[in-house]
Amino acid sequence: MTKLTDMKREKDSGQAQWEYLLEVEDLKTYFITKAGTGKAVDGVSFRLKKGEILGLIGESGSGKSVAVKSIMQIVPKPGRIVGGKVRFKGEDLLGDAKAIQRVRGKDMTMIFQEPMTSLNPVLTIGRQMTEGIMLHLHLKQKQAEDVACKYLEMVKIPNPQEILKRYPHHLSGGMRQRVMIAMALETNSSLLIADEPTTALDVTIQQQILALIRELRDRLNMGVIFITHDMGVINEISDHTAVMYCGKIQEYASTREVMKNPLHPYTQALIQAIPRIDTEQEELHTIPGSVPSLLNLPAGCSFSNRCQYACEQCKNETPELYDTGDGHFVRCWRYADTSTKEG
Questions:
Q1: Crossing angle of helices 141-154/173-185, nearest 10°?
Q2: Cis peptide bond prior to 319, omega within 30° of 0
Q3: pLDDT of residue 340
Q4: With b meaning 16 or more CB within 10 Å and e meaning fewer, what string describes 297-314?
Q5: Is the Cβ–Cβ distance between 29 and 66 less than 8 Å?
């Protein structure tokens, strides 16, 4: 039976070939403070192929952003990666200090929720776009500007030559986000990590950005990790979905399977909270309580204090991630007797 962390490899003429663009295995990132240790990422495993979009979903504080920042190795202090493996195109990024420097910003790039915090307000768009191109592709200024214009056109920004002369505050939120996507792709990136890139945008612009990311994925055959707290967005853009809560993946399957047959009570609650126009609702469904502090997690299952199905075992013992078949994994005691433990 297939396991979530079963990292297979093929060999060709004696050379190891990578089957997965990205492999994350038992990744752990802790924030060690005087008040205690917060396990922001606690044993996360997943894998991603070229041309695939993986959605990471969960409430604020669930560990989504820290997980991808751990992959990029840009975790802010006092955060520290304390265990696990991250392989990119078969290369171990955690075991080799220079490996991440070779791929970060070139083969592996990231865009953030609010582009105004990522773009330098006192530098032109052209200055910011050409800097990375010149550094990673070793091109001169005019050549770098030509490449920048090519990618601005790719993300459907008109008059790219004129945009290069503008400053970030001259552009709308949607345009700034398109610039950030262009900057992430301009070095021929194989992996794009998008950390809630549509949250600060209105619904119309959000749809345009989602469509753009799908189109670029298809055209460039790149892998994408898309982080959001919106199940509707996940359903629209991702091929597979990992539901995170308190630093752990609680459920993992194809997005269609997660939406059609959610197994974990947390996933079920997230889907129930989506407003619907085809049924009458007197009030919106909410999940009782809030995400607990990482410094004061409940014993046993971290969701037990908010779960309607919680029993004594849930409150005292931590469940493992179980394989229920066909690549559907869930961290819940209700499936322990009929599933294969993954870890």
A1: 120
A2: no
A3: 57
A4: bbebbbbbbbbeebeeeb
A5: yes
Token look-up 């989506």 returns: 274
Q: Show the 3-state SS of the chain.
A: CCCCCCCCEEEECCEEEECCCEEEEEEEEEEEECCEEEEEEEEEEEEECCCCEEEEECCCCCCHHHHHHHHHCCCCCCEEEEEEEEEECCEECCCCCCHHHHHECCCEEEECCCHHHCCCCCCCHHHHHHHHHHHHHCCCHHHHHHHHHHHHHHCCCCCHHHHHCCCHHHCCHHHHHHHHHHHHHCCCCCEEEEECCCCCCCHHHHHHHHHHHHHHHHHHCCEEEEEECCHHHHHHHCCEEEEEECCEEEEEEEHHHHHHCCCCHHHHHHHHCCCCCCCCCCCCCCCCCCCCCCCCCCCCCCCHHHCCCCCHHHHHCCCCCEECCCCCEECCHHHCCCCEECC
Strands 191-195 and 108-111: parallel
pLDDT digits (tens, 9 = 90+) for 277-331: 667 767 778 888 888 999 989 889 999 999 999 999 999 999 999 999 889 999 9
Q: Nearest 5°: CA angle at 332, between 327 and 337? A: 80
Q: What's the pTM?
A: 0.88
CA pair distance 206, 306, nearest whole angstrom: 31
Q: Is the pLDDT of residue 114 over 80?
A: no
Residue 276 predicted with pLDDT over 60: yes
Residue 171 in tokens: 């552009």
Distances (CA, A) of 15 to 47, 172, 327: 21, 48, 29
Tell me: pLDDT of 96 over 90: no
For range 160-187, the mean pLDDT: 92
